[in-house]
Amino acid sequence: MFDGLVMLGGGLAHFLTPMSLFNIAWATLLGIVIGALPGLTATMGVALLVTLTYKMAPDQAILCLMCLYCGAIYGGSRTAILLSIPGTPASAATTLDGHPLALSGKAGTAMGLATTSSAIGTVVGIIALALIAPLLAEAALQFGTYEFFWLALFGVIISGQLTAIDDPLKGYIAGILGLLVAMVGMETLHAHQRFTFGISALGGGVDLIPAMVGAFGFAEILGVMKRTAQARIISSNDRVVPRLADVFRYKWTTIRSGLIGTFVGIVPGVGEDVGAWASYAAARRVSKEKDQFGKGSQEGLIAAETGNSAVIPGAMIPTLTLALPGSAAAAVLIAAMFIHGIRPGPLLMTENPEFLYQIVAILLFSTIAMLIFGLTLTRPLLTVLQVPRERLMAVVYVLCVVGSFAITQRMFDVYVMVGFGIVGFILREMKYPMAPLVLGIILGDLLDLNLRRGLLLTNGDPSPFFTRPISAVICITIVLTILMSIPAVSTRVRSIFTRSRGDTSAPG
Amino acid sequence: MTTDTSAPSETAPEPAMVKADLLAGLFFILLGLAIFYGAWTMDRLEVRRIHPMTVPGLVPGMLAFALTLCGGILAFRSLRTPADGGWRQLSGAVFSVAAARAATVMLLALIYTLGLVGTLPFWAATGLFVFAFILCFECWLSVPRKPWLKSLPWALGLAVVTAIAVTLVFERAFLVRLP
User: Fold this and answer.
1) A280: closest CA among A259, A299, A263, A262?
2) Torsion of CA A474, A479, A480, A485, to 10 degrees
3) Are A173 and B71 a contacting pair at CB < 8 A?
4) How far apart are the first and last CA of chain B?
5) Could you give the 3-state DSSP secondary structure of residue A186?
6) What is the pTM of this model?
7) Any B CB within 8 A of A148 CB
8) What confidence tens digit (pLDDT) does each residue in A200-210 have?
9) Domain boundaries, chain A
């Protein structure tokens, strides 16, 4: 514990240089702008920034990427409140109460509360990250081949389940498609080339960054340009800096939402949007002012914003300790870490323990930057929202091309970006979530290698996959998750529970 | 708990989506079968005497099976869901203004990426793309259309600025090579 504090101090001191502070400032501000612009998401921003940070020192590169990520998730709330369009998917829940508040002339209050809630949410997540990550990393050292196979499968399935709540089947399909994409190229056990069809560029497989730039960048451009209607900005001149009493009035909602967000972040591949919805739903369920939700409830706004921001540090927990991305943007971060020679995973705490605390420090700094920019730059951010998308999206596409080309300097990667963009757009239009697809691309290799390596170790006997305690637990969880996603099963299970609850409450 | 209709709403599926699901389901079945065939006929590396349970085609085969299964469920479910006028609604969506706008973006993007980049210098290709994109969407596909004279300076200015800025920022400041 004491070691941890010392290393945290080290992490904080590490970034107290003028260069780092400058990077924190511009990256967070850029993040807020990207988040605020509808059609530019956090994942897209991080994926595009990887290119620019390519030649930086590893710690500074990760610093910029993380700050941009935090800024973007927060920045989306601005658009949600003023335009009733979520700037990023993460702030979809914010629109429900944020925009009604703006309509009733309290846009300033709403923006202020969104800012403080995002900051507090991140802090709750940061505390969890600093406490849980070292423990999880230690536990993860016990994980072997068998457990990693199940973890990879669990990641894809749970992500498919939770990112497509209406229709988990589509989430699963997206996950399977991602895993299949990962099968292309040289496999790691016998160095055999699979599905390359004689194209030498496919030998190394499909790179994650171009695929993500396509699925989150180009596909998003297509989605935004498809719509004809433009929203109108609603703003007012009331105070933005919230009163402390307002912030602390719903302290339990804040803490609860922070914890829910962190937990959602820990679940692999389930991102900020789910975190926001989950904490919003929980807040409404226990709130004394249920009827106000959706009509401009401050509590609802606080829950949504705390929930989505707490996901970021939460997502870093599995990302750093297991190399399982906790969210789509975290998947890009993993790719960026590998580019910069940092290997996330169970060995991170033994090889590079300072790095975890540097991440904690980065998150703290970016929270401070977000708070300052969020409460002061109200007017300039309003002008950002007025940029016409016809002009913006043309430039963004150019950045997508450059971003996917720059890493390995092959035109092939640009074609991958275009392909993923078009396919991703069609899939999105048919309500397939993108997060499981991306998670599949990242985890495919892990799943494939560990399954076959496990079978090799046991000479073809699959029983350790089911008999080792941790394996068995994950396996049962997977089976239950899939079973619960079948409507017939889940309604039956739910009816059992409601019936028994009805029985016990009936006499009282 | 009575009003628990939180955001991911549980409305009845749109008829067009039901039909789209049917097509997608059939496509996934075909794709799954094709990949399964590829995995089954993949080299089993018997020459290298690897363990038969570790053949390279094992996981792709399993995934292909899962994809076929999911595609089958999707198609079956779609067949059982009543969707009156689904085909008409679906073709309406495919030939709508929105789809035309998306197709225009795709077309412009493809011309830029596959045609212009590589044949022209990158800055020229970029400028041309930005110029065409803005004019296309402001003066032709927008409702109401903007007057040419108002959009032209913007399109020209932004094209020049983007072409110069992207080249300078990436090549000089961040030392990234451009296509």
Assistant:
1) A299
2) 130
3) yes
4) 56
5) strand
6) 0.89
7) no
8) 888 888 888 89
9) 2-487
